[in-house]
Amino acid sequence: MNSEVATWTRPFLHELLEEIPKDVDSLIDVGCGRGIIGALTRIYRTPKRLVGVDIFQDYIDFCKKYKIYDELHRLDLREMPLPFQNHEFSVATCIETIEHLPKQQGERLLDQLHRIAEVVIVSTPYSFFKQPDSHVGRNPFQAHVSKWTVEDFKKKGFDVKGAGSWTQRIVHDAHKIISINP
Fold first, then answer.
1. I want to staple 180 with a disulfide (CB 3.0 to 4.6 A). Which of 32, 47, 111, 169 is the partner?
2. Could you tell me the residue range of the domain that residue 154 belongs to?
3. CA 136, 79, 50, 126 torsion: positive or negative?
């Protein structure tokens, strides 16, 4: 396995997990992929409800096979609103997903995540980079199409908690926590 592709998560998974309250009641993992966040939450937290959302059927099938989530939904995040009630979840995570949406749709997704969850945790690369076709592979939704900056989140009312090159920038307010993976 190519270590450049496989290691993006290592530097901040423990920091990300620390942002998920130990007593989390419910968590929705939007853009769940192969269920890394769901698996960590299942192992280190005790949510009563763990929900995964992705558009790519292979990821949905993988998560079903390993029973990572209590519920799985195949949804196109470019289509709003999300089909969940206001504050239905304690926490919403959207890890390495928002950069796969056009900017305007990503902004709408942030609004929707805040609507459905009390705490929102998001990570995204700090700089835009075009992925090689070999990385995108069979998943056409994997391509990066937007770049996000600290200023983008500040405009939405977020405060920057930290910054670094491969360390994480955590941006938060009373209801939202954003982790930007530079």
1. 169
2. 3-180
3. positive
> Two tokens at 38?
């769901």
Burial (0-12, 13-18, 19+ Cβ within 10 Å), 21: middle
Strand ranges of the sheet holding 49-54, from the earlier edge strand across to the other edge: 71-74, 49-54, 26-30, 89-95, 117-123, 177-180, 169-172, 159-160
Per residue in 31-88, pLDDT (tens digit) is 999 999 999 999 999 999 999 999 999 999 999 999 999 999 999 999 999 999 999 9
The secondary structure of residue 12, as a DSSP letter, is T
CATH number of the domain encompassing residue 91: 3.40.50.150
Peptide bond into 81 cis (omega under 30): yes
CB 32 within 8 A of CB 54: yes
Burial class of residue 85 (count of CB atoms within 10 Å of its CB; 0-12, 13-18, 19+): exposed
Number of domains, the chain:
1
pLDDT digits (tens, 9 = 90+) for 6-25: 444 556 777 788 889 999 99
pLDDT at 136 over 80: no
Cα–Cα distance measured from residue 126 to residue 169, given in angstroms and rounded to the nearest whole number? 9
